[in-house]
Amino acid sequence: MNKLRTLLFFILPLALISCTDTREELEIKKDGSGTLVMKTDFGKILEMVKGMGENNDLSKDGLDKPYDTTMYLKDVIDTAKNVPADQKELLRNGKVHLVLNVKESLGKMDMNFPFTSTARLQDLYTSLNSSTSGLKNLFNGMGKNLPKNDDSSSDKGMPQIASVYDIVVKDGFYSRKVNKQRYDEFAQSMKLDELKQMGSMFGAMDYTLTVKLPRAIKKVSNSKVTLSEDKKTAALKTDLMETFAHPELLALEIEY
Strand, coil or helix: what is 208? Predict the structure, then answer.
């Protein structure tokens, strides 16, 4: 467990910053409950890390062996002192599945969070998208005894692109709108010019949003959305670097 915590402490920022191929999969059931899944593929980043490090470095950091393991947050959430009680309840039933093989440039992290109502879903989004609470604080607490990054700015957190949206979910309606203030803060903290250079190094990276609903979709605002045959699932795929510069690409409203 300690080795897994160490690995997650180093890898989680990659998922939070969303500089990876990312899939956000939301399923809402008839009673308002459902599941939010965030899937990240950071194999391209591992390819670069592997090229920069020596085998001894990988061995020292515990990254010379393949991993395929699952962490259930209920096993660690109660001992997390820096996570508020309401955040603990939101995250308690979540789980994180990690597949990692640095030598093969294989890296995937799936975060799965069930929710009991659309109101809890909105709270869950707020927690996951915050750079100062929830999941980030949980793993920061796990890594408190690990060597610190010399860059003091890292303590401010690394917001993900999903954090720039105001998300509203209620029966018959799903909305994802750009919050200009949060986007301006995001753009300033992320240094978009540097991200563009990073994009040229890693190649194409996508953000795919999938929303599965209990009834057929009546109306959708974004023309890039594709619907399933039964019209209960909406999918929106964008180029990640383009979305960093134009967040409205990932904005939409759905009536169902």
Answer: strand
- List residues bridging with 70 in a β-sheet: 97
Residue 156, domain member (yes or no): no
What residues pair up with 211 in beta bridges, in sequence order?
26, 234
Give the global pTM: 0.80
Measured CA distances, 50 to 57, 64, 98, 194 (Å): 10, 10, 18, 21
Q: Give the integer Cα–Cα distance in Å for 228 and 216.
A: 10
Rounded to whole angstroms, the Cα distance separating 42 from 109 reads 8
Q: What is the residue range of 228's domain? A: 164-256
Give the domain-ending residue among 144, 175, 209.
144
Same domain, 178 and 133: no
236 and 228 in contact (C-beta within 8 Å)? no
List, for residues 156-192, the tens digit of each pLDDT value. Answer: 444 467 888 999 999 999 999 999 998 998 888 777 6
Strand partners of residue 37: 25, 112
DSSP label at residue 149 = P
Buried b (16+ CB within 10 A) or exposed e, 190-222: beeeebeeebeebeebbbbbbbbbeeebeebeb
In a domain, 157, yes or no: no
Of 39, 54, 49, the closest CA to residue 10 belongs to: 49
Mean pLDDT, rounded, for 230-254: 94
- What own/partner pairs with CB < 8 Å and gap ≥ 24 does 184-189 have? 185/159, 186/159, 186/161, 187/244, 189/156, 189/158, 189/159
pLDDT over 60 at 92, yes or no? yes
Decide: 100 and 63 in contact? Cβ < 8 Å.
Answer: yes
